[in-house]
Amino acid sequence: MSLTSEYTKKVLDEVQYNHPNEPEFLQAVKEVITTIEPAVKQEEERYKKTALLERLTEPERIISFRVPWVDDNGQVQVNRGYRVQFNGTLGPYKGGLRFHPTVNQSIMKFLAFEQVFKNALTGLPIGGGKGGSDFDPKGKSDNEIMSFCQSFMNELQKHIGQDIDIPAGDIGVGGREIGFLFGQFRRIRNSYEAGVLTGKGIEYGGSLVRKEATGYGLMYFMREMLNANNINLQNKTAIISGSGNVAIYAAEKAMQMGVKVIAMSDSNGCIYDNNGINLDVIKKIKEVERGRIKDYLQSCPNVQYYENNSEIQAIYNIKADIVLPCATQNDINIECAKRLAENGVIAVGEGANMPCTIEAANYFIEQGILLAPAKAANAGGVATSALEMSQNSMRYFWSFEEVDNKLENIMINIFNMCQQAAQKYNCPKNYIAGANLAAFKKVADAMIAQGII
Ligand code: NDP
Ligand code: 2IT
To answer: What is the mean predicted confidence (pLDDT) over 355-368?
Structure first.
């Protein structure tokens, strides 16, 4: 798809010129600008005059800081921390923290940029932000994780608050890390500001269903998308990349919906069990032992394990009806997309953020393979984070069923918004365009209402 408006072309050129070393950020911006162009054209003069797209693609603030900490050998280590406060028009900045050695400014900016649109789709009052560090939690002791989290929070606490910016988890940040971060925040501030972080433990202000929310929400969205195309999930097979928080609870809900999950992975390789994966074993390995997916063979020796050793990750060679990329960005490139299409995939649901390259996503749409886009399909996590904030403000909590019902309704609404926007702009099965158009309209209107900020 090429741009036809002078204004969108100019903005995209400028972003490319200004950030040549930020490929992930450029990719995310390019996808949004190309798909929202029809809406931009309708109000081009107004957007141009108010530099709406220039403001939309420039973060309000980027914070980057040193994180020194002491390892178990007494050696001082230094990492880099970030918080990108991208757009606070709809509410306080909201978005996760990622701890992974690949973290850099480009990845932080792409994630924060996407979060602005995702959060708009939830319909809840949250702006978009993201943060994290190049710290690698793998192989670290609990003591090292705590030492790092405390040092990270010593700096981050200057920039967050329940009405300012509310971090949560992402890759490498789960309940354990949020606990250490919250403890340090509380200690420094000497105040119990429960709503400053989400994904907290249930015993100290966390919400039921937050742990499950991204994966469950993904499957609620998938069900709606498939229903709208007269396809039933029952008895379909699925492969799920990753075996972390999103992958595990996508698998759990998929199984509850009658789907047979036959493969899951981590960055080393995948397990394949044609009889269906035993999720209890995966939970034990990943949530309790923090082990590798290969360890699955110790409990279930008769399954296949394939190491990743080529451009296409091993899991994507397995034939299935449904593919749920739930690991990381750009997992599925064009070669991988073609392989999946050859294998007869019906639908792809993006649990991870930007797991498909632009070429791969366009290829799926051209081939009539249904694609549930990340900004919409994985919004259940942040939506439930916003429900956690509501409960913290009320100093109250809801039951599992109450939160789950709210989550389900939010995901149904998000699907309907994507579908309606896609229809309105004449691209009926392009839910990426639908998601971006619906979210853009909301953020743009609010930005204009708030003046030149
Ligand atoms: P976790 O840390 O719990 O799990 C990440 C999983 O992805 C692990 O299995 C990990 O394998 C795999 N993975 C990570 N990086 C790579 C890589 N470079 N190559 C191959 N595999 C990799 O993270 P989450 O489940 O929370 O997050 C997964 C995705 O979902 C991310 O894209 C995240 O941004 C997105 N997301 C998360 C939400 C949440 O609420 N947590 C909400 C919305 C989106 P290994 O152990 O080998 O590294
Ligand atoms: O990418 C995401 O939406 C998340 N990691 C969840 C963010 C949140 O604030 O719950």
So the answer is: 98
